[in-house]
């Protein structure tokens, strides 16, 4: 028969170790209740801790996307306001052009209109250089810190670029915070947006182009055409290579139709006069206003000069109407982006709720369970302490 000896020191050490372990359990449970977080150390549950960190990172990204959306919304609303102001100025310019195109205005009246048109142009330039209230220009593209437009002797120059600042406003959802100034003010379609008609600069008659349009897209083919008068009452249509496509007789106020296009002319063109119709080019809005003001300021002494002015003013009226449509289209695009921000807000809210719930399941303490566990642990600790005290009082002399 063998016996096992337990020293008094070993007995005390074993009892002390048990109490320390129980105290550690009590302290951990108390810490969980105080912090309301049951993941105190990675060693306790490495997988849960790693998942919680990933969820924290995802929530941080959502918060950043929320801040991004706030900034983008501010810039888009600022752009929408600026485009509205541009539309107001263009509407005024078109009203002035129509007013100046009437036959009852004197030369001085037209010069006064030109002065107001130049004021409209200056206001448009100020809008084009407007900032968003945070030190960034609205229409400089992706080049922050530059004043996008400058007024030089030869016209307006652009120092921005064609870039779009695309910002993440929800997971995998990006929204541009505006349009570059080159797109808003410089590349503006002229004519009716599809074609633009005009009178040749060297015309000597009094013919005025009242309107031009596509009558049949399939018959036109998209190539520039030239209506040339072989004499005062006979016209022919030529393509870009000089091939004659159609001919006809002219009477004042008639609409010419040939090769898929139509032009309405008034007045008396002279032999050799010509009118063109071609795909509408782009032009900056400042140049359009400059040309209109210059046409109104030019002296008019003959019927030919009057017809030249009327052709320039009539073309500018059409260009301004198309520019107005251009701004409305940009406002519509801006509105679509603002609507996308609303959708992104819903996505962020749903994502935040899901992530928060998942994180809560990993971290949040069940107070009822933790309080019950703490009570049991305290009871066990108290029992261990009493046992240790009893052991300390034991002696061999008690057995004698």
UniProtKB/TrEMBL annotation:
Keywords: Bacterial flagellum, Cell projection, Cilium, Flagellum, Secreted. It comes from the Bacteria. SUPFAM superfamilies: Phase 1 flagellin. The keyword Secreted applies. Residues 6-142 form the Flagellin N-terminal domain. Its main location: other. It is found in: Bacterial flagellum; Secreted. Residues 322-395 form the Flagellin C-terminal domain. Pfam families: Flagellin_C, Flagellin_N. Belongs to the bacterial flagellin family. This is Flagellar hook-associated protein FlgL. The gene is flgL.
């Amino acid at each position: 028969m063998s016996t096992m000896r337990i020293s008094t020191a070993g007995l005390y050490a074993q009892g002390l170790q048990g109490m320390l372990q129980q105290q550690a359990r009590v302290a951990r449970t108390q810490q969980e209740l105080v912090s309301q977080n049951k993941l105190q150390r990675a060693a306790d549950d490495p997988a849960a801790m790693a998942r919680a960190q990933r969820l924290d990172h995802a929530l941080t990204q959502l918060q950043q996307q929320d801040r991004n959306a706030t900034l983008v919304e501010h810039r888009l609303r600022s752009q929408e306001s600026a485009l509205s102001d541009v539309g107001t100025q263009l509407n005024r310019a078109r009203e002035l052009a129509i007013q100046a195109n009437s036959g009852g205005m004197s030369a001085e009246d037209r010069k006064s209109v030109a002065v107001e048109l130049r004021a409209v142009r200056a206001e448009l330039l100020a809008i084009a250089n407007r900032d968003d209230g945070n030190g960034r220009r609205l229409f400089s593209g992706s080049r922050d810190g530059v004043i996008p437009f400058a007024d030089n002797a030869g016209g307006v120059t652009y120092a921005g670029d064609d870039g779009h600042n695309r910002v993440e406003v929800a997971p995998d959802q990006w929204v541009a915070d505006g349009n570059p100034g080159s797109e808003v003010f410089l590349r503006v379609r002229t004519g009716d947006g599809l074609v633009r008609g005009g009178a040749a600069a060297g015309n000597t008659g009094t013919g005025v182009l009242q309107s031009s349009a596509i009558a049949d897209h399939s018959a036109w083919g998209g190539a520039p055409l030239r209506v040339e008068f072989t004499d005062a009452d006979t016209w022919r249509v030529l393509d870009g290579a000089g091939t004659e496509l159609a001919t006809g007789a002219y009477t004042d106020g008639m609409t010419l139709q040939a090769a898929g296009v139509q032009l309405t002319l008034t007045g008396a063109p002279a032999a050799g006069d010509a009118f063109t119709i071609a795909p509408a080019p782009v032009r900056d809005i400042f140049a359009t206003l400059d040309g209109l003001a210059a046409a109104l300021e030019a002296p008019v002494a003959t019927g030919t000069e009057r017809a030249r002015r009327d052709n320039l003013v009539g073309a500018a009226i059409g260009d301004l109407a198309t520019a107005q449509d251009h701004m409305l289209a940009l406002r519509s695009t801006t509105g679509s982006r603002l609507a996308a921000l609303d959708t992104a807000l819903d996505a962020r809210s749903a994502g935040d709720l899901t992530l928060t719930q998942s994180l809560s399941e990993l971290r949040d303490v069940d107070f009822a369970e933790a309080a019950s566990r703490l009570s049991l642990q305290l009871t066990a600790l108290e029992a261990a302490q009493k046992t240790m005290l009893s052991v300390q009082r034991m002696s061999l002399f008690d057995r004698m």
